[in-house]
Write a structure and sequence with these properties.
Number of helices of chain A: 11
CATH topology of the largest domain in chain A: Rossmann fold
CATH class of the largest domain in chain B: Alpha Beta
CATH architecture of the largest domain in chain B: 3-Layer(aba) Sandwich
Oligomer: heterodimer
CATH architecture of the largest domain in chain A: 3-Layer(aba) Sandwich
Helix content of chain B: 25-40%
Mean pLDDT of chain A: 86
Structural class of chain B: alpha/beta
Structural class of chain A: alpha/beta
Radius of gyration of chain A: 21 Å
Strand content of chain B: 15-25%
Number of domains of chain A: 2
Helix content of chain A: 25-40%
CATH superfamily of the largest domain in chain B: P-loop containing nucleotide triphosphate hydrolases
Number of domains of chain B: 2
CATH superfamily of the largest domain in chain A: P-loop containing nucleotide triphosphate hydrolases
Number of helices of chain B: 10
Strand order of the largest sheet of chain A: 6-7-8-3-9-10-12-11
CATH class of the largest domain in chain A: Alpha Beta
CATH topology of the largest domain in chain B: Rossmann fold
Largest sheet of chain A: 8 strands, mixed
Mean pLDDT of chain B: 89
Distance between the termini of chain B: 38 Å
Number of strands of chain B: 10
Low-confidence stretches of chain B: none
Chain lengths: 337, 324
């Protein structure tokens, strides 16, 4: 277990009713995890694995159509003695802690910064909104100065000039920095960055990654980085959480994943594919990705190379392989038991 | 042998805000593509990669410059001839969702392509569609509409539709952006795995490690110009011994790799002004107090080929008197 978590989640279920469907579909299935205070945790997994919706649901910023239907989560700003439930038993939202969450405990950098920023308002006005949340009692001049300070902190050149620009006048890298500044403006202890480097070229990607790392070190901030870019994950992660089709399959410290491979067959497959891409063996010998089917068993059973009978009948238990390293897999369970 | 040759291609767009200066998107690009060649086109966002791709196929009309396809003047074609020529030059658009018609099924998309580009095969369209769906691992998805497909499946429909006319030149704009590793490798294999050896590709991407392996040679673009052309094997952040042969911007891109153990270059932020070398404001190699700086501020460096085939546009690397 993590000794001093800032966020703790237990058995969180999120069910979404897709447009046109009548039955809800579980997109997060019983996720339990802890985020150590001051750490950099990366959540990895392919598109649709539930990475984004899990973090958003816990922070209460999921879209209207989705709903948390189970589980509990605590935010612990000042240690375990001050644990505040942000999700009550059976997934009920707690309004007051949620408001605090948005007012300074947590910040969220949304995917696609160009879409997350308001196109009709200047960058300065949007960062100022956040500053007012944290420093409502201060004078306008002080708030203005703080806003410029944030634009400078995210290494935007000429903060005064940029503050007057609208989002469409920014390049991709500048928009990402502006989005980070709006999230930092509330002075959060905990920051979630959702795919902050997608679509950026190498030099900008590196600058953003290093900026996030430096901000965390300077401010003692906890970072959760959602990404499917393994190069970014290898660079940033102190802890890795692997998700697949709504299921949290593996969770452990960095050294269990890099140089790799991870213990779960899915993590290992993902890492092989990444390595093959880097070394120019794209798609050779891996074969097609088998489309998943409805199953009572393990969510990965249709693609797994190591299936045993138990995999087809029920979801595997969480196996604690090592201190702070959990794997949800029948095969690993069998070997370790 | 040359499939497509472009000389001094230029395009300027009107500014989005009145009274702003016009946007020079592509500023004098020369380029030849041989049959069967895969060319990587890299550079930062806004450097003009996509615009250049569209100009080469006349999806956007160039302001100036000449384009020949198989030696014939491509820019002289009128609308009906251009439509006919499009069968052999195809583009895979960056936005996998936006380039599909939300009201059409996958079958209808493919049938439309067959009717347009392979009218002779229209009689056996059903078989051809079934073959294509199988080849692109879209079995059972024929009657699905785009919104019912995953991102990877939409991308595969876009690729299938583009390859169905059996084009001789494909311009692929960020075909793997935003896909996760497993889907990425699958899409790459479908695109390039079984291609006709004479089919040429222009592969536009941010992902230098993918470009290195799919491309034969790589063009590096910066602010509408090609600043360097080099063999794809040199796009290797683990091997930066011959940094002198790299354009300062190419070096900066490679040194930004997160996998290799390299330090990024320290990018100076000088005041940018018009004229001269477009990269000089961010160039880490030039010393603004050296006599050469004047040339950097006044003159756009011409592309030259110092001691080899790699084209490069930089005064520092090409000026014999001031060689460091």
């Amino acid at each position: 277990m993590v000794s001093d978590p800032i966020l703790r989640a237990e058995d969180v279920w999120v069910r979404v009713t897709p447009r046109g469907a009548t039955e809800p579909v579980a997109v997060v299935r019983g996720a339990s995890f802890s985020i150590p205070r001051g750490s950099q945790t990366c959540v990895v997994g392919e598109s649709g694995s539930g990475k984004t919706i899990l973090m958003r649901s816990i922070l209460g910023i999921s879209s209207a159509r989705s709903g948390v239907t189970g589980g509990q989560a605590w935010f612990q700003p000042g240690g375990a003695s001050q644990a505040r439930a942000v999700l009550g038993p059976s997934g009920r939202r707690r309004r007051r802690p949620l408001a605090r969450l948005r007012k300074g405990w947590a910040g969220y950098v949304f995917q696609h910064p160009q879409e997350a920023l308001d196109p009709f308002r200047t960058v300065g006005a949007q960062v100022l909104d956040s500053v007012r949340v944290a420093r409502g009692g201060e004078s306008r001049e002080a708030q203005q100065a703080k806003m410029l300070e944030w634009l400078d902190a995210v290494r935007l050149p000429d903060p005064r000039g940029v503050a007057r620009l609208h989002p469409h006048e920014l390049s991709g890298g500048m928009a990402q920095r502006a989005a980070i500044a709006t999230a930092l403006g509330t002075e959060p202890e905990f920051l979630v960055a959702d795919e902050p480097t997608t679509g950026l070229d190498w030099s900008v990607r590196r600058e953003i990654v290093e900026l996030l790392g430096a901000l965390c070190r300077e401010r003692g901030m906890t970072l959760v980085l959602i990404s499917h870019d393994f190069q970014v994950v290898e660079r940033m992660a102190e802890r890795v959480i692997v998700m697949y089709r709504g299921e949290l399959l593996e969770d452990g410290p960095r050294k269990r994943f890099f140089p790799g491979p991870g213990r779960h067959p899915y993590t290992a497959e993902l890492q092989t594919r990444v390595r093959d891409l880097e070394e120019g063996r794209a798609g050779t010998g891996q074969g097609a990705i088998v489309a998943p089917e409805r199953t009572e068993g393990c969510r990965f059973v249709h693609r797994c190379p190591q299936v045993v009978h138990a995999c087809k009948t029920g979801m595997p238990p969480d196996v604690v392989v090592n201190n702070g390293h959990r794997v949800r897999c029948h095969v690993v369970h069998r070997k370790d038991a | 042998m040359t499939l497509l040759a472009a000389t001094d291609i230029r395009k300027t767009f009107a500014p989005r805000i009145k009274d702003d200066p016009p946007v020079v998107a592509v500023d004098g690009v020369d380029l030849t593509i041989a049959p069967g060649e895969v060319i990587g086109l890299v550079g930062e966002s806004g450097s003009g990669k996509t615009t250049l791709g569209k100009l080469l196929l006349r999806i956007i009309e160039p302001d100036a410059g000449s384009i020949t396809l198989d030696g014939a003047d491509f820019r002289a074609l009128g609308a009906p001839e251009l439509r006919a020529a499009r069968t052999s030059v195809q583009m895979i658009y960056q936005a996998a969702t936006a380039c599909l018609n939300p009201g059409l099924t996958v079958d209808q998309h493919l049938r439309e392509t067959i009717a347009l580009h392979r009218p002779a095969d229209l009689a056996r369209a059903d078989d051809l569609i079934a073959e294509t769906l199988a080849a692109f691992r879209l079995e059972g998805k024929g009657s699905a509409r785009p919104r019912e497909l995953s991102g990877g499946q939409r991308r595969r429909v876009g690729v299938a539709r583009c390859l169905l006319p059996r084009p001789r030149l494909v311009i692929a704009d960020e075909p793997t952006a935003g896909l996760d590793a497993s889907v990425k490798s699958e899409v790459l294999e479908l695109m390039l795995g079984g291609r006709d050896p004479d089919q040429a590709w222009v592969f536009i991407s941010h992902e230098l490690d993918i470009v290195r392996f799919v491309a034969d040679r790589v063009l590096v673009m910066y602010r509408g110009r090609i600043v360097q052309e080099l063999p794809a094997s040199r796009i290797d952040p683990r091997n930066l011994d011959d940094v002198d042969g790299l354009h300062p911007y190419t070096e900066r891109l490679l040194r930004s790799a997160l996998t290799a153990d390299v330090e990024p270059v320290e990018v100076p932020r000088r005041e940018a002004s018009s004229g001269g070398c477009p990269y000089r404001a961010e160039c880490h190699r030039v010393d603004p107090s050296a006599p050469l700086w004047q040339r950097c501020t006044e003159q756009v460096p011409d592309p030259v080929r110092p001691g080899g085939t790699a084209r490069i546009s930089c005064h520092l690397l090409t000026d014999p008197e001031t060689h460091r």
